[in-house]
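Dear colleague,

Following up on yesterday's call, I've attached the two folding results inline so they're easy to grep. Please treat them as preliminary; we haven't cross-checked anything against experimental data yet. The first protein's sequence and structure tokens come first.
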Amino acid sequence: MKPYVYITRKLPEEIIKPLKQKYEVNMWEHEDIPVPKEVLLLEAKKADALLTVLSDSIDDSIFSEGNNLKVVANLAVGFDNIDLKSASREGIAVCNTPDVLTDTTADLTFGLLMATARRIVEAAEFVKEGKWVSWSPLLLAGQDIHHKTLGIVGMGKIGETVAKRATGFDMNILYHNRSRKPEVEQQLSAAYVSFDELVEKSDFIVCLTPLTAETKGVFTREVFKKMKQSAIFINASRGPVVDEQALYEALVAGDIAGAGLDVFEKEPINADHPLLKLGNVVALPHIGSSSIETRVAMMQLCLENIEAILEGKAPKTLVNKDWVPLVKA
């Protein structure tokens, strides 16, 4: 029998066609509706490989049921939706899609910063709603970006690429990270500072840190109070690193000037979410890597990782480095 591959979101047929030539492939036939957990559990029981997305919770129950499961390829650079310890215990490789989305996500992050600072979304709606009846000196006046101080929390590859974008705007770059990056400091004239110093000195705070036990809820009301009142907060990493109630209160109280958010604590959010009621918030539906070219490259990388594992080869982007394949009964 051919190995069985289950895909938890509908992907373009032309992308998965090569996979179907080698393996038995089944796919959840919905683009916008998550695969129900009970369906995923049933599929995991018989699958040799799973291709998952960030909103799928791949926990111990999945790995325990996966009698034949050898690999989970996650269509994202992040993998906080996957229980890595359980995967390694069961001898299942977990792969992600780093690098191919770096530039695209950095573009979106900087675009979100610009849209928030210059009130671009608000201005576009102003015109569409027929409110533009005359010109005035401070009509929808936003904030300059050039020559301001950018603080990046989480200087991974995406953070580095955002910093590179910022050099074109002659920005002063600060960063905070688990470890210093001397080469980045030299190439981009970035300065490593403490988290508190970054928060206090930055005109724009961009969060690109991965979600871990240490970073969960790190942006509290007290942190927002330490920011400049003119500061703009951008989050393009993971929603749970921010206390959303604290952010809402900070925006209403004028502790900070605005926020651009591509991610939220619970996704998707409802239209009645308090943050969506605020004019100084630009909200996007987690589209950081969403360009046609990049998403196709991510899909192809997932397929390459699955094929490698099923053929007994090393995957390109292994996440759980302690993985040792097991011979399953």
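Below is the second protein, in the same order (sequence, then structure):
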Amino acid sequence: MNDLVKLERASAPGVATILLDRPKVNAIDDAVLDGVLEACAELADDSDIRAVVLTGQGRNFAAGADITSFPGFDRDAALDFSRKFNGAALALETLPQITISAINGYALGGGLELALATDFRIAATDARLGMPEILLGIIPGGGGTQRLSRLAGITMAKDLVYSGRNMDPDEALAARIISSIHEPAELQAAALELASRYASGPASLRIAKRVILEGYHLTLEEAAEIEAQGFADTFTTDDMVNGVASFMEHGPGKATFTGR
């Protein structure tokens, strides 16, 4: 793990934090992407961690890619960078844990692209989100055109990508890009509280996440089979045994889960 991306496992029981830490604005370069990939590789097989918070050190989540290297890019270098960025975003998206981005300050371009790869996004009142690449004569290259279209709809994606404008948290909430807004001083606590709720959930959360991701782009018939397999997989977990027994004895919502 390099110094630009820190993996903190003591955030809360069962919760880890991936912290982007590249002053001044956590601009994303190859080294940051390497750090994200390394953090995801460590977390992928860690059954003790059941939820992950992604956030930025200081006043900003991540103000975008580090464009200082772009003047030296030819087409091949740009393609390599985009593929690496997409690999990091996919590694984040496919983590088995439930993932939450806590967006403080600017989440622009590549910063927003990383946030879009998590399950949920919550934002501070001073957050600003956007895809400003078009103002540089380029387009998003870390999955932004695709995830934004799927999340907020193709019209909103076209609006943000074509214009390069920023949106405030109220507009992002209305567009369902984020799920809640918090005062800046309360953002990290809110993210950890949400993560802790998922960290205390059953093993079936991981299965549900896998089923949703795997089935999303399939036909309904194919996706239904993915769900059937996942449903069956939940019956191999200790949490299913405990959850059903608790329901029958005490009613809903009383079970204690181990994540196994």
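For the second protein, one point worth flagging: The beta strands are 5-12, 15-20, 51-56, 98-103, 106-108, 120-124, 128-130, 166-167, 180-182.

Best wishes,
A.L.
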